[in-house]
């Protein structure tokens, strides 16, 4: 009787652990669209200081374990960036065909790692500009998933 009770309780426990083991990593993984937003979107900033890149690169986890050499922050509302997926199609740097160029210039900040700067002291040059941007879009929901450049 005790053995039957053990198996009745044990089987659902094992199934629950298997489901949690499969579902939890899936739920915790950052999607490409979420990564794009974390690494590139900063719509609430209009004016940047010389320390902007140092602060933002650290805040957005791009200096964990190494210094990301370059990054661009976009200072426009997310819907204005997402609509680029319906604008001019251009070739991506990696030769894929899912890149699109904005039809108007956007406010951006380019961050470049300064010469001689090494992890863990990542020191960035900050340059605020108005440029056309190129983003890669995912066909399924036309989400921006990658920053490909600015011109």
UniProtKB/TrEMBL annotation:
GO CC annotation: extracellular region
GO biological process, one term: defense response to Gram-positive bacterium
Residue intervals of the Ribonuclease A-domain domain: 29-151
Gene3D superfamilies with a match to the protein in the record: Ribonuclease A-like domain
Signal sequence interval, chain numbering: 1-28
Keywords: Disulfide bond, Endonuclease, Hydrolase, Nuclease, Secreted, Signal
Protein name from the UniProt record: Pancreatic ribonuclease
Organism of origin: Martes flavigula
Lineage: Eukaryota, Metazoa, Chordata, Craniata, Vertebrata
Name of encoding gene: RNASE1
């Amino acid at each position: 009787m005790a053995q039957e009770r053990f198996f009745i309780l044990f089987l659902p426990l094992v199934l629950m652990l298997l489901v949690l083991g499969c579902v939890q990593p899936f739920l915790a993984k950052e999607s490409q669209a979420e990564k794009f937003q974390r690494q590139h979107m900063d719509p609430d900033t209009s004016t940047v200081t010389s320390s902007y890149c140092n602060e933002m690169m650290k805040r957005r986890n791009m200096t964990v374990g190494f210094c990301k050499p370059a990054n661009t922050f976009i200072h426009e509302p997310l819907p204005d960036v997402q609509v680029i997926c319906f604008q001019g199609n251009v070739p991506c740097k990696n030769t894929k065909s899912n890149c699109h160029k904005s039809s108007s210039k956007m406010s951006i900040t380019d961050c470049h790692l300064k010469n001689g700067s090494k992890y863990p002291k990542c020191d960035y040059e900050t340059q605020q500009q108005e440029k056309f941007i190129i983003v890669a879009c995912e066909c399924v929901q036309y989400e921006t998933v990658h920053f490909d450049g600015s011109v």
